[in-house]
Structures are given as C-alpha cells and as structure tokens.
Amino acid sequence: MNQGFDASLPTKLLLATDLSARCDRPLERAKALALQWHAQLTLLTVREGPQVPAEVVQWLAGSEASTEAEFAARRDIAREFDNVGYPVSLQFADGDVADAILAEAARGDSELVITGEARINTLGEIFLGSTVEQVARNLAQPLLVVRQRTRAPYQRLLVPTDFSPAARLALETAGRLFPDAQLIVFHAHEAGLAGLADQPRGGNDGGSGTGNASANAGAIRLRCEQFIDSCTLAPDLRARIAIDSASGTPELLTARYALEHGVDLVVLGLHSQSGMLRLFMDSKGEQVLRGLECDTLLVSTGAHDADR
C-alpha cells in the first residue's frame, strides 16, 4: 500500500451555470457538496453574446442593461443561498464558455468544477460536443457533470479501469472525494482474453472452454486486485472496494452496468494513450456520456503529466 494518503476534501468549488432553471440539478448538487465539505462555492456564468431577440435588445442597450441584469442575478443568488452556512460568490465572464471555465477554475484555485448537461444550445451542451475535450483535458481539476436530482450523497460509485495511470488517478480521486461511498472497480474486456495472464489452456476440463473462462476470470480479478493495491487509498476504503468485470464492448458495458447496478456516479480517467478510457473522448465516448443516466466525474491526467 502506498504511503502519504491525504484525506483532505475540496475547500473551493466552481459551478458553471447559466442561472436558468435547466441548471437546477447541478446547482442542487453543488449546494449539497459545499455543505457536506464545508467548502466555498463560486458560481460562474458566461455571456457568449445575444442569442435571442430579447438578448439582442439588452446587448444594444449597452453596459447599463448588463449591470441591471447582474444586479438581479446577484439578488436572486443572495436569496437562494441565504444562511446556507458556507461562503458563496457569483462571477460573470464574457467570451468562449470553455475558455472562461478554464480561466476561472485556475484563477480561483477551484478543486472541483461542476456543471450540467442539456440537449439544447446552452452552457450544458458543451458536454455533448467537441468542447468537452477542450474543458476536460485542459482542466487541472476533476469535472463533475450532473444529470440526476440530488436526493442523497453519492453512495455507489463505479470506476472503470484499463489498469492505466489515468484509471489509477480516477480511483484515487473517487476515494479521496467520497471516502464513505461504495466503490466498484469494473473492467470491461473484449471476449477471448486468453492473453491477459500466462494461464495454461486445457487442464482438468479436457481442453474445454470452461477451464479457460475460469482461468481468465481469475486472472482478471488478480489484475484488478493488483491495480487497487497500486493506488493510494485509505486502508478501510481499500477493504470495501468491490471488483467486477464483463466481456463485451467497453463503451456499451459501462452505461449498462451503471444502470443495472444502481450506480450514483461514474468516475472516468481521461488520458491520451491508447486504451479503454480513451474512447470516452471520441465519438463513441460522446454516445456513452449521452447514454449514462447517472452523474459523471471526469478526471484528466493532463495536468499531472505536465508536472512530471
């Protein structure tokens, strides 16, 4: 077991929101996490320019109208967070949404960035298009994409693994942020993984596929256990981690497993090397993100690789 476990929780959270009702779910999760962690919460809204006639009128009115809109937003936020027990601030930015999120996250030393998902042309749509790569890969902090209503703290987390450094960072991050949750390490593999470990073929089963399947299952579990042991985790958390695996297409199995096993949060490690988790940043990955009904935490190795 690695040494130097750091059980500290985030103290600064950043919520990217357009302040509309469609961002209520990420807002509620951000409020719950800020209360749970006693963390400071910053709300960021980005003005990309006029999108509808009413916004064009406001834009033509100039800075005075913009100031009034900001005043109204700050008033509403003050009401929303009255006596919540943790500090809250509201920041406005102009320009590209992804650039604004990255800049504010760096400027404010945020430790977790939170946003939502939408099916229309709003802030949330960045997670259904190419901007997700720009944000997730360049963000030093984990990125939490909220889909579900906040009914309780995250209780059941799924961490897909391809045994890479990115998957290791994802598991360590999940364990650090949610030490009381049930963690499931899940390895999805293509059928016929005889080469996963040096297991002899045949044996007492007379050469049938039963022995090979059993040997492969044992080899996969051993590999998962070795992967978990290589991570920096609290000893009590390590003892509670469950292991599961399945044979098939990884990008399909992840969403199906999360749905069938009541997973609250899927934690994905992102990296530029080849491997299973890389597909979460290509066109298939966007389909997986659309298919997931639970929340998703994206953890990139980019900033960590740059420090080496």
Topology (elements, then pairings):
Elements: E1 12-16, H1 24-37, E2 40-47, H2 53-61, H3 63-80, E3 88-94, H4 97-107, E4 112-116, H5 131-138, E5 143-146, E6 156-160, H6 165-177, E7 182-189, H7 209-229, H8 235-240, E8 242-247, H9 250-260, E9 265-270, H10 283-291, E10 295-300, H11 302-306
Parallel strand pairs: 1-2, 1-4, 2-3, 4-5, 6-7, 6-9, 7-8, 9-10
Antiparallel strand pairs: 5-10
Helix pairs in contact: 4-5, 9-10
Report on this structure:
The chain is an alpha/beta fold and 308 residues long. The chain has helices at 24-37, 53-61, 63-80, 97-107, 131-138, 165-177, 209-229, 235-240, 250-260, 283-291, 302-306, and strands spanning 12-16, 40-47, 88-94, 112-116, 143-146, 156-160, 182-189, 242-247, 265-270, 295-300. Strands 3-2-1-4-5-10-9-6-7-8 form a ten-stranded mixed beta sheet, sandwiched between helices. The two termini are 22 Å apart.
Mean pLDDT: 79
Envelope shape: elongated
Order of helices and strands: EHEHHEHEHEEHEHHEHEHEH
CATH class of the largest domain: Alpha Beta
Contiguous runs where pLDDT drops below 50 for at least 5 residues: 1-6, 119-129, 193-204, 273-277
Indicate the CATH topology of the largest domain. Rossmann fold
CATH superfamily of the largest domain: HUPs
Radius of gyration: 22 Å
Beta-strand content? 15-25%
Query: Strands of the largest sheet, in order across it?
Result: 3-2-1-4-5-10-9-6-7-8
Distance between the termini: 22 Å
Give the proportion of residues in helices: 40-55%
